[in-house]
Amino acid sequence: MINVDIEEHVLHREQKCMLSYEDLIHWCDEEEISASHIALFMRYLTELVVSIQCTTSYGFLCPTSLSKFASFENEDDRSDYIVKAMTCTGCERGRKLVFAPYFEGNHWMLAAINPKDSVVYWCDPAGTREPREFLKDTINMAITKINSMDPEKCQQKELEWKIIKFMFKAPKIYSVQQIDEVRDIWATYALQFKAEVFDGNV
Prior knowledge:
By secondary structure, the chain is an alpha/beta fold. It has a single domain, classed as Adenoviral Proteinase, Chain. The protein has helices spanning 8-11, 21-28, 35-51, 75-86, 133-149, 170-173, 176-190, and strands spanning 2-6, 15-19, 58-60, 97-103, 108-114, 119-123, 160-163. The strands form two sheets. Strands 3-4-5-6-7 form a five-stranded mixed sheet, covered by helices on one side. Strand 3 (58-60), helix 4 (75-86) and strand 4 (97-103) form a beta-alpha-beta unit. The protein is globular and about 50 Å long.
């Protein structure tokens, strides 16, 4: 097993990312992608954002945070978590984009949240699913909370959801070579962490 600590500044809550040999094979062979895969890639992207000094521009949510089964007491707590990801020290009205992956029925989708303009870009590679109402309500609640922090500066815009139409043609946009490059980046990054051996009693 490869055990990777995901620090709080990455996904705004501490967690551990456990990867097995099978997880590595699944990623490389285009099989099922788990939340651990996504969390580790977001850790890589966070380091990249830091290296180009754009920490005030981009943020990431835990891959399971938008799920109804996430470990939050209620929707108010979940929206508070989203607010935490949207705001940061050094940015006037929040980050430019917060990337929030969403998983349902063995299928990954993405909400890219623009807090300043109250816009959510909804990306579904398969082009088959509209955002769930509970998901929209939670993000709307988070945007409302951010607007209430500084009502003089915000324009009190109603949250707008934009469906990214070009995602319907995703297979025609990305070549196999480009996808393989991302797989190579992930695998190289994952293998830099030390593997741990667990006995049968653990």
